């Protein structure tokens, strides 16, 4: 697999981090259109921020795993 220029980070990690930034910085636009702000009886903003936080945490764990697997640092 071809690695990125910085420290052997796989290119898919860069893509995942870009998606993290987009999700964290842009609120769901369909809420503006539909006006629906509840998901399964819970405020949609709460669901959104918990889901985005979990997604970002997963990307950090995946990046850590990729770095360890590549031998860039020892855990």
Description of the molecule:
- The chain has 75 residues and is mainly alpha-helical.
- It has one domain.
- Strands 1-2 form a two-stranded antiparallel ribbon.
- The longest helix has 27 residues.
- The radius of gyration is 16 Å and the shape is elongated.
Condensed summary:
63% of the residues lie in helices and 5% in strands.
> Which residues sit in consecutive blocks of at least 5 with pLDDT less than 50?
none
Indicate the radius of gyration in whole angstroms: 16 Å
Oligomeric description of these chains: single chain
- What is the first-to-last residue Cα distance? 22 Å
Q: Kindly report the average pLDDT value.
A: 81
Main sheet attributes: strand count, strand direction, barrel closure:
2 strands, antiparallel
Derived from helix and strand composition plus strand pairing, the structural class reads mainly alpha
Numbering strands along the chain, what is their spatial order in the largest sheet? 1-2
Number of domains: 1
Beta percentage is 5-15%
Give the number of helices.
3
Number of strands: 2
Helix content: 55-70%
Label the overall shape: elongated
What's the helix-strand series? HHEEH
């Amino acid at each position: 697999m071809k690695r990125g220029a910085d420290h052997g980070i796989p290119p898919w990690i860069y893509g995942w981090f870009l998606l993290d930034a987009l999700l964290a910085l842009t609120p769901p636009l369909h809420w503006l259109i539909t006006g629906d702000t509840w998901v399964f009886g819970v405020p949609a903003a709460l669901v959104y921020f918990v889901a985005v936080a979990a997604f970002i945490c997963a990307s950090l764990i995946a990046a850590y795993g990729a770095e360890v697997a590549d031998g860039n640092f020892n855990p």
